[in-house]
Amino acid sequence: MMNSRRKFVKQVAGIGGIAIAGIPQVLAKKINSTSMSQNKISISSVRSDFERDPLIRPFGFKGGYMSEIWQAVTMLESSSGIRKTALGTQSVLWSDAAVFANISEAGGNGLMFAMTNYALNLIKGQDFISPIELLDSIYDDVYEYGEKITNKPDLRKTFALNALVAVDNAAWLLYAEENSIQNFDDLIPEKYKPALSYHHEKVASIPLMSYSVPIQEINDAADQGYFFMKIKIGQPGSQSEMLKKDMERLSAIHNTIGHYETVHTKDGKLPYYFDANGRYQEKETLMRLLDHAKKIGAFDQIAVIEEPFPEEKEILVGDFGVPIAADESAHTDKDALERIEMGYKAIALKAIAKTLSMTFKIAKVAHDHGVPCFCADLTVNPILVDWNKNVAARLAPFPGIKLGLLETNGHQNYKNWKTMESYHPYPDASWRKVHKGVFDLSTDYYEKSGGIFKQSEHYVNMFKH
User: Fold this and answer.
1) Could you tell me which CATH number the domain at 187-463 has?
2) Which of 135, 199, 358, 411 is most buried per CB count within 10 Å?
3) 84-100, pLDDT tens digit by residue?
4) 217-252 residues labelled b (16+ CB within 10 A) or e (exposed)
5) pLDDT, tens digit, for every residue of 106-124?
6) Cα gap 371→337, rounded to integer Å
């Protein structure tokens, strides 16, 4: 990261009830326009808040467990009087497992929320034309602030991007209103449209099976019609303990659902989607897992393995015989290109974790290099599911699969999911429901863009006073 040349004031400023030290003076940087036909938007007011949502049970991955998830809520108001409220779901464990391990769960969430507020202070009083350029103008400063408050000079970039989702989403909604945009297709900037040109009639709903999910629940999901499931591997313990547990888990899964059939794949078999979250330290360890898969007859059903290695190891992955996907290591479009050059054959897009602005950039890089994408979840709230679904619905079909792919696991993990669903602008819409493992996307879905342009009364009311 480039060192900031801006001076910091010595005061403490706060938004949404949290005091933040080191708020910079008003930015001098001007945001360049890429299209003079678009309106210049002045941000006159910013606010924030958050809600803490408990989980049904500890949610395990990356060798750790979460017990609750914070929903960050932001409000941007323009000088023309338009107000837009937007959401971001925080995941400190996913964004930077070291921060999660070194501080309390609530403390880590508080630091990420402080970064969201810091970003709001950066953009207050500023003009912008494109949300993408707005994000570009503040990202370095937000990241550097994150390094400072987490006392972590190698903070993962995804930590800053996760903190910026609610800000970026609000900017896109403000941009849409100011430019009379009413659907997601028109929201996509011209240069990114080729990467998001499909309109799938069906999108697979991918549930997440973390370490603690019993095999019986995986079997039940297959009985309900779910055919593309995300299985967490890389279980806690030493590398040898992890491998032993993962082998046993793979055997149990294959013995349980390996014989199931589906109409949604070319070979009629259920594909396996494994996510290791960087837990495998060496190629040889993953090779041993794959050898085990061959031994039990599961290898040919492995559609993708996501993030097997720590990104700092920079291991070439083009020789495993199965597609290796990048997720958190593809922080930015530049990082995605580096992963593609290392042999990664797929990219997990996370508009709900890395911002919609950055997702457009990453999708373009992948499309330009013929690398397929799918949409992964961050255990987000029901409204953000549809932000992510708008992307998944427009991506080219994943190889061997006949439809779009969208991971969504909030219904499996939030204790108050039904209440959260009631906050969605269209809680009873048919395109929100999963039928035999898929979302059916009607004309109504595309006309409403999954409801993202309609404000949620619940979250708007958080800023009434």
Assistant:
1) 3.20.20.120
2) 358
3) 999 999 999 999 999 99
4) ebeebbeeebbbbbbbbbbeeeeeebbebbbebbbe
5) 999 999 999 999 999 999 9
6) 10
